[in-house]
Amino acid sequence: MKIKELTKGIVKRNPIFVLALGLCPALAVSTAIDNAIGMGACVIFVLLLSNLIISLLRNLIPKEVRIPCFIVIIATFVTLISLALQSYLPELNESLGIYVPLIVVNCIILGRAESFASKNSAPDSILDALGIGIGFTISLILISLIREFLGTARISIFGYGFGFPFAPINFFILPAGAFLVIGILLALFKKKGLVR
Amino acid sequence: MRESLKRVVVLTLIVLISSVVLYQAYNVMEVEERTAAYEQLKFEKMLQTIFPSETRDVYNEENDFYRIYSEDQCIGYAFMTIGKGYGGDIKILIGLNNDKTIKGIEIIKQTETPGMGVKITEKWFTDQFGNTTINEIGLKRSGGEIDAITGATKSSRAVVNAVHETVIEKIKLIEKAGEKK
């Protein structure tokens, strides 16, 4: 069990800013901080369980059918979380919309299954999943913070928040604004030498 | 031969286990009951916003509208409609007074663009429909009384058109149903 498996996902192999994986949901749900936290939690849950199960079954699954096996396992956990959201948190489910079911095809999750969980032990895979999941969530929160602040002139978390006295710049709520924010953040991190 | 058999067995087993787990989870989490309860709750809440004094609603199955009662007095009607928005269907609840003027509308479900079309759910937009007659339902540029949302004319138009068409249609049905009684 190596602690670096946990930390590498947050900075050095951050899924959004370094691996540039899972950008589609990152662009789509980062309009509000609540959505970013909800989406991040869903991804951590799915990543954790799918990495665990896949690493436990890694010697059992024949190489030729590993991708369909991974997809079925991932889809099972995504369906579970989607059902749970539907029955217990219907409001969050409505604002996340189609992006929860789409976690199935999120390349971060299949990517971790294929490149890490299928080759490493269960404890390491759990740490890897946590690291990548937290890295994804932090990036999402960062992007949504900027977009919510500029786009609606408000910052709020779970109903508590405050407004700012300037006219909101609608552009940042739209998908094009997300591209701009991610691009600027990437350039900034690169300049500071935080990411490769 | 043994290898290829193993592939089939493993994949089939994983799919089987997955189906059993999901079937159990669906029942344990009471997904169906809870979703239906949530939709009903949302509907009741929106009905209350339009008719604050409402105490009872009776569904007319044949013509698909609700009669709204306060105490034992029929104070109006409510019905649902679907508009074709920019990002998909917009589900709208419309409340009608006894004198066939519009009491108010509420957006039940929509998938419009965040930051733009989503504004159809905001109070200032839906409030414009309160206490209007059918002739006033139209965007200002087409001679109506409703202000369109800046940058989301298509969403605004979808709501206005759906309300306009459905109200005309339902008034006829309500009058017909009233005669029968």
- Tally of separate domains of chain B: 2
**Ends of chain A: how far apart?**
26 Å
Annotation, overall tally of beta strands of chain A: 2
Proportion of strand residues of chain B: 15-25%
Content-based structural category of chain A: mainly alpha
Mean pLDDT of chain A: 86
| Pattern of helices and strands of chain B | HHEEEEEHH
The poorly predicted ranges of chain B are none
Total number of β-strand segments of chain B? Answer: 5
What's the quaternary structure here? heterodimer
What's the main sheet of chain A like? 2 strands, antiparallel
Helix % of chain A is 55-70%
Q: Estimate percent helicity of chain B.
A: 40-55%
Tell me the number of structural domains of chain A: 1
The Rg value of chain B, from CA coordinates, equals 23 Å
3D structure, described in words:
Helix content of chain A is 63%, strand content 4%. Chain A has 196 residues and is mainly α. Chain A has one domain (4-141). Chain A has a two-stranded antiparallel sheet. In chain A, a hairpin with a 2-residue loop joins strand 1 (154-157) and strand 2 (160-163). The two termini of chain A are 26 Å apart. With 181 residues, chain B is of the alpha+beta class. Chain B folds into 2 domains: 1-50; 54-180. Chain B is built from 4 helices and 5 strands; from the N terminus they run ααβββββαα. Chain B has helices at 2-28, 31-50, 123-127, 153-180, and strands spanning 56-60, 65-70, 73-84, 89-97, 102-109. Chain B has a 5-stranded antiparallel β-sheet. In chain B, a hairpin with a 4-residue loop joins strand 3 and strand 4. At the A-B interface, helix 4 of A face helix 1 and helix 2 of B.
